[in-house]
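Appendix B, Record 12. Input sequence as logged:
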Amino acid sequence: MTNDEQGQGAFNAATGRSLESDNGKPRYLAYQRELIRPHCGRSVLEVGAGIGEFADGFTGLDRYVVTDVDPEAVQQMKQRFAHRGEVEVQQFDIDGASVLPEPVESLVAINVLEHIEADVDALRCLAKSVTDNGNIILFVPGYQQLYGDFDRKVGHFRRYTPDTVSAAAHDAGLTVRVARPVNFLGAFAWWAAVRKGGAGAPDRRLVAAYDRFVVPVTRAIEKRVRVPFGQSVLCVAGRAG
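Logged structural output:
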């Protein structure tokens, strides 16, 4: 089986969305970029980038390698970023042995690690594409209490806490620099829609309302208060030199 055949349909399986759709959450994407940018150097590898929605507004880098295992998503990103000279688009399998020949200062994995059963092994592999003293920035679903039908449908093996994602990073030989919950109000919205409501797919109207009304409040709260839990967990792990 070729790499293309192995990755075929991976985007849909992991997100529940088609390649033609967008996530309808511009404010949430801006919020993610705001959380992740301070931990990035001048060169970045993003794994599991899908169709490039996060990367679309993440600019100002010297080198940005955007990757996905799904060959159709890769082709779509090549068209999307054809005008950006700093962007390289590649097919990349983090569950295999893909390694960048020229390492980057920072690696970003947004809602990726939970799809990998052997997460520690995947982190060890990912670290090989990062320079000494570089950062691996993980943005993962938070708290097993929020695990529901949608998680099962898109192949989530687990949701994380700051302690469990830190343990995985530590077991992979990394030094944890940040591990904290984020998207505090999103946890309540997720619980209501997925755990209590049993939603097995995103409702575009609810997603749009969440993005318009809930995300700005969440961002304002988290700029002032360290929240006790959230829909997601942000972890920054360093590769020691």
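The longest helix spans residues 204-224.
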